[in-house]
Amino acid sequence: MNNIIVSKFGSATFSTPEMIKKAADIIISDKNRRYIVVSSPGERSADDVKMTDMLFILNSRYENREDFSEMLDQVKARFTEMVRGLGVSFDVDAEIMNIKKNLFFGKGNDFVVSRGEYITAKIFAEYLGWPFVDAANFVTFNRDGTLDREKTFAAAEKIFADTEHAVIPGFYGTIGGTGIKLFPRGGGDTTAAIVARAVHAELCEKWSERTKVFSADPSIVENPAIIRHLTYEELKQLNYMGVSVFHEDVVLLMQDIGIPTKVRNIHDIDDAGTLVTKELPPEAHRGVAACIAGKRNYRIIHIEKFGLNRLTGIGQKVFGIFTERNISCEHYMSGIYRFSIVVKNPLFDLKRAEILQALNNAIKPESITVEKNLSLITVVGKGMRTVKGIFAKMFSGIAEAGVKVKMIEQGSDDLNIIIGVYDEDYEATVRAIYKAMIL
Question: Which of 98, 261, 344, 409 holds its CA 20 to 30 A away from the CA of 353?
């Protein structure tokens, strides 16, 4: 490890020349920011179209043998606006011609869409006066579309060993030696993590327009605290409940690499942001819990049968029925006479009669009931369950709010507690837990 910082900037950063200049000021304000991962330009206004979508549309029109010239002109106009606003010398026409040529050569959707990051990174490198390094030169995918970590890590280390500064496009790599392959959502963050590993960075930054990691939903809790420290394990729990700071695959990679990541907001550069690490640092100060998050509109299926606990293979039978119908079982609870499954997949409502009949045939229960409109709320905090009186503190607050708890689940780790309440009580429960455990 050294003082090197890898900084990844989101699409809003490259929406206008003014935003790009703001990012450049951030970069040059710290000489340790030496490797910059770039996104495709985002929307300039509420009714604008981001570059990635424009390129998707462009390729779709070509494949459907529709006129794509207007969309190609719009792509050219966006990049021309960027070049003129930054005052750099860059041949936009040549890049547009290259897109058009590769459309005719059948390079496909991934190649066309990747040009958003590719061209933006080349323009930004010109503006900074830094070298441009194409992600296709080191990011490699296996034939099944998964990241080939061994090849990717080795190639990245070789390329960046002799490169002191670089601008790198995110979101794509190469497959089969010559083809371009896009990452799933969050691919730019993956690229940044790969670069951070290759250069033995001290820190990987994520700069975006909206990203502040709050301890609760600001639309429910007024002025919730910003989380200053999180572990990767906690972040995985929050991802599950929709707190989308990073794509889950990115979190796993970053956790494996082990380099700290700081989430920053480009519109509030004085804010320290949120630091994500493998373990909480000694200076971390938080409430009893770190964060509260949740989702609405779950279903609970209750299966009741005398002597259920003595039946062998009950779980296998139940889960098999849901698996055959491509429905994920989010949680389950079991007792002496009852087996309950929590599902969210909307397919359940479409296949409800079929599923209930299959459960009746397989288990022959005394009854099967379905409860609708359940919300799940997770309370996340490393080590919080070792705090004395944690459950009393939480449930006293919920009781004071007049909320009836429908389910409680706690795993074998010390990271989170999940409770279920009716949808109508969701917001009141979040506020009650926040008051009891974070304020």
Answer: 409
Q: Give pLDDT tens digits for 327-352.
A: 989 888 888 888 899 998 788 999 99
Which pTM was predicted? 0.87
Task: State the Cα angle at 431 between 426 and 433, rounded to 5°.
Answer: 95
Q: Give the E-state strand segments of 106-237 in sequence order.
A: 140-141, 166-169, 172-175, 179-182, 203-208, 229-231
The answer to whether 333 touches 374, Cβ cutoff 8 Å, is: no
Sequence-distant (6+) residues with CB within 8 A of 64 are none
The count of other CB atoms within 10 Å of the CB of residue 227 is 28
State the CB neighbour count (10 A cutoff) for residue 3: 11
| Confidence at residue 135, expressed as pLDDT on a 0 to 100 scale | 97
Q: What's the gap between Cα 397 and its chain centre? A: 31
Residue 411: which pLDDT band, with cuts at 50, 70 and 90? low
Coil vs helix vs strand at 33: strand
The answer to whether 160 touches 199, Cβ cutoff 8 Å, is yes
The string of pLDDT tens digits covering residues 15-62 is: 999 999 999 999 999 999 999 999 999 999 989 999 999 999 999 999
DSSP 65: T
Q: Which of 45, 55, 44, 53 is nearest to 16 (CA)?
A: 44
Q: Within the chain, what is the greatest distance between any pair of CA atoms?
A: 78
Beta strands in 232-328 (DSSP E): 261-265, 274-277, 291-304
Report the Cα–Cα distance between both ends of the chain, in Å, rounded: 36
Burial class (CB in 10 A: 0-12, 13-18, 19+), 2: exposed
Q: Give Cα separations from 86 to 8, 35, 36, 124 (angstroms).
A: 20, 20, 17, 9
